[in-house]
Write a structure and sequence with these properties.
There is one protein chain. The protein is α/β, with parallel strands linked by helices. Helix content is about 40%, strand content about 25%. The strands form four sheets. Strands 4-3-5-14-6-15 form a six-stranded mixed sheet, with helices on one face. Strands 11-8-12-7-13 form a five-stranded mixed sheet. It has a two-stranded antiparallel sheet with strand order 1-2. Helix 1 packs across helix 2, helix 1 packs across helix 4 and helix 2 crosses helix 3. The chain is rod-shaped, with a radius of gyration of 32 Å.
């Protein structure tokens, strides 16, 4: 016996004073309503209704139980309406994770606009360059740059990112612009990323991946530091396009070896599941697509 179904059947019989009209309201057969009431009475160990051939009346126990049933079913209806409303109108707390640099420059403005539009939502933006577990860390969605490993997360691509080799115009004038990846060997390089694997710069030529080793003059785990050093004539550096966007716009850096670049990296928003996606998450994704140009070409 489903207790909620049985309570609803009891309430309908009490309000309509009959099993047949209660059955019509509930879309059940009269015998099904009778069985629900009988099972409820058996569970409670008390008779709730006095039945005659012409009428149905509440017992004293039934009258006391009816008042409580009305409150319980009203609470259930209110709880369901609240959850359904949450799925249709953004509300509650939204936690978003993003890489530090990209999050500061491009996700933070989206979050600001989001909170301005949806006043019933409170937001938290967590900036980290470490891969986090969304469920364990209580994160609603994350912005990730790069190819994603297989996982149970749902991913929606919202942009793409070039990886570019840049240098200052002054450096290129003094040392010459490299025309092929192999020409990097005769140049000073600035390495962003201090792992051994990152010392190889990857390119594509005639559809084939190639790796070019480098012996950097300067190594840093900060894109800002690498770009600043390159702006001051320190040499070639390889970064993501958004990291160098301001210096490129101001003419302080120039892209080289563009025709040998690897394919752009995808930018995704990822979240735990698409089933019963909450309105607050759906609204954030829609806003990213509406106001953000995350295709960095």
């Amino acid at each position: 016996m489903d207790r909620i179904d049985a309570m609803q059947a009891f309430l309908a019989v009490a309000d309509l004073e009959g099993f047949a009209p209660a059955a019509r309201r509930l879309g059940l057969s009269p015998s099904a309503v009778t069985r629900l009431i009988a099972a409820l009475e058996e569970r409670l160990g008390a008779r709730l209704l006095q039945r005659t051939t012409r009428s149905v009346a509440l017992t004293d126990a039934g009258q006391r139980y009816l008042a409580r049933v009305r409150r319980i079913l009203a609470d259930v209806e209110e709880a369901e309406a609240s959850i359904q409303d949450e799925r249709t109108r953004p509300s509650g707390r939204l936690v978003v994770s993003a890489p530090i640099g990209f999050g500061r420059l491009h996700v933070s403005p989206v979050m600001s606009e989001y909170l301005k539009r949806y006043t019933e939502v409170s937001g938290e933006l967590r900036l980290t360059d470490h891969m986090i577990n969304l469920i364990e860390d209580g994160v609603d969605l994350a912005v990730r740059i790069g190819h994603l490993p297989d996982s149970s997360l749902v991913a929606r691509q919202v942009g793409e990112m070039r990886r570019v080799v840049v240098a200052s115009p002054g450096y290129l004038k003094a040392r010459g612009e490299p025309k092929t990846p192999e020409a990097i060997a005769s140049h000073q390089t600035v390495q962003f990323g201090a792992t051994a694997a990152s010392l190889d710069w990857r390119f594509v030529r005639e559809g084939r991946d190639i790796r070019i080793g480098s012996v950097p003059r300067f190594i840093t785990n900060s894109a800002d530091a690498a770009i600043q050093y390159a702006v001051k004539g320190g040499g070639l550096t390889r970064v993501m396009a958004y990291q160098a966007a301001d210096a490129l716009k101001r003419g302080r850096l120039k892209i080289v070896l563009a025709k040998f670049e690897q394919s752009p990296l995808p930018i995704h928003v990822v979240y735990p599941t698409q089933r019963l996606l909450s309105a607050k998450v759906r609204a954030f994704i829609d806003l990213v697509l509406e106001v953000s140009d995350w295709y960095f070409g």
